[in-house]
Amino acid sequence: MTVAHTLVAGQGLTTTKAPYIENAVANGEMYIEQPYELYSADNHDAWQRLYARMQDRWTRYANPRFLDGLATLCFEPTHVPRLEDVNKFMAPRTGFRAKAVSGFVPAFNFFDCLSRREFPTTITIRDGSSLDYLPEPDIFHDIAGHVPMHTDPAFAETLVRFGACAHLAAEMVSRVSDPTEQHRRLSSIQNALQRFFWFTVEFGLMRGSAVDELKVYGSGLLSSYGEIVHSVESPSVQRYPLQLEWVINQHFEIDHYQPLLFVVNDFEHLYELVGQLEAWMKSGKLDNVTPGWRQMSEADVQSFLTASLNR
């Protein structure tokens, strides 16, 4: 029997310490509401400090369209944003909307949301006593790191096209009759999609307007006080023009600063790369990428298989 936690206004929506999220997960609720009254004073203080310390770094390292997005969204510097307010400013620009989730979203469902101009958004915020430690995505990463980019039409169209790749993957898998081969190909395609997302949307760099200038557009960098500087200035980081064959075969690890990053020319170039990814999937070039260091979760596998059966 699942025991529901009592919810009290102001009790907090702190990452890994939120009874509201525990209740939602226990009830199998993936898509949820943002119970704004549950945020505590400490939660709002954490947002204020995270937001304030990033200002100079965004000005120095972020790409101009991200900065335009910040201005468009009119974030309140001292309080965790309400998703309804974020959507009020964002939806008229590109049709994108932040969609509150309780945590993990299976791979197909996540991509499908992007194809429908919905961005799965975590509503908890990291503990204010450890602003640099992030055991999992939080609302600062999702809203301050990702969402400003969603106000840009070119980037938004890229996300929609990338999300649609999941439907193509489900279609490709549906053509395979042998369950073992079906699982193998799906794992390979998923590795390719996951790596592309990681090295672009999460940790992407872009050429700036000046010669040899680099700007940040990846949300994992834009929401990290330390890594945004490290990504552009550290001599220990390898930075290469994005080549699709490199990216889809490149392992990555999530628990340290990235030692290898890829650079695109502009958002139009990024959109074209997603088109190349689609073409390679159709031709079978994603069926045999370098195996991942971790297996697809059963939930991820089932999300694609269910989609393939529903075609």
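the 2nd protein, sequnce then structure:
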Amino acid sequence: MTTANICILISIGVYLFAMLAIGAWLAKRNGSADDFYLGGRKLGPFVTAMSAEASDMSSWLLMGLPGLAYLTGICDPAWTAIGLAVGTYLNWLIVAKRIRRYTVLTDSITMPEFFSKRFGDDRNVLRGIAAVVIIVFFVPYTASGFAACGKLFSSLFGVDYVAAMVISGAVIVIYTALGGFLAASFTDLIQSIVMTAALVIVLCFGVATAGGLDAVMQNAMALPGYLSMGDKFDVAANAAVPYGALTIVSTMAWGLGYFGMPHILLRFMAIEDERKLTLSRRVATSWVVISMFVAIFIGVVGLGMTAADAVPFLSGSDSETIIVRIASLLSTHGVVAALLAGVILAGILAATMSTADSQLLAASSSVSKDLLWGLFRVQMSEKTAMLIARVSLIAIAIVAMFLARDPDSSVFRIVSFAWAGFGAAFGPGVLFALFWRRANKWGILAGMVTGGVMVFVWKFLVRPLGGGFDIYELLPAFLLNCVVVVIVSLLTAAPEKRITDQFDEYRALGK
């Protein structure tokens, strides 16, 4: 093993040890299953902001987004980033305080539990369906993170992809199973800092290696449509492909997904004081905008490095390893540079782990708290509940690893599908729960099922037809969910008085 590889492993090893240490340290603070899943609602504003966004961005920020920009130019990733930035801000502005306030009023720890209590579903059918939706879409989402870890170590050290994926996944499982929600949140804060450092180091080194900012921009401008917001660069044909208004709307629809992301909504629910969410919103939105801009520009810089013969041309899903290739090149410039390269690669791990730990928690809570205890009424002690929570987490991780066994899987495509699933199934339900007094359990249930099913239908049956149907499945599924909620709610009995009284009490608490 070379000196560079040893230095990289030292940096990564220190990072992984720190994550495990945090998990072990916070394990003693989980006195109950509720503490394990929501941390006793004790998060500060900065931890809330950065853990929410770190768990949001995932490996998509340091692999999917730069890889897409590298291959196709800025149009596709930039419109996606704009949609996400708007969605992030609106989610913090109109949902954060309200969901925190309402879940405290209903004494809800998970999103499925909130849906049932908000709409008076005493049989917990709505809770059970919501839990199944979480499991269905979080498993492949978590798989995308494990795939990113496997790609990282496989491309860097030439080790077996599956072995690398399993080992990195095991670290995530260990510290999450030990420390629960608090471990996930505090490690996410550290991971957001490591991700930021990785972006800055890659950007500075990449620009210098490509011959300076002027060389990077000249190379990009020489490619048809590469820097256009109205055209997409086709690398095979070396031509610009028009990016129509419908496609722009479809791409920006990524922002709708935020309203239905359980792992992000949980951060809103867990803050110690809802008045501190204003500061959290400002910190979170600023970090998201800056980090996505830098990630996209790194893709442009990466292509400039390819033009300068510093890194080979990367096609297909290999483009998602551009930052890994840049880090590998940096590691050849001495011990300090190799340690910095390790920080970059730890940043990719951080982006992956910060999302995977939150997803594993949300999915395991759906199994133990929402299905076993909520739907099937299985009585258990706190000790048993904690054990089941941890066993569920491990089982879900194993399934995710199985799904991630294909090294050619695209991180961007997997994330986009899971994101659409949550946004379409949960997003409208969250908004109607917070803003419409007349919404009832039948409308929310019908909308949730319709939105989730439509994601599959549009993705695999309608979108392949092309033309006007070639739009991101989140948009039509989200809109159809909204329509179904309104129609079914109006056609069925109005909510009981106890439900509307509780809604009025929640609204009286403020906006």
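Residues 443 and 491 are 9 Å apart (CA to CA). The chain has a mean pLDDT of 86.
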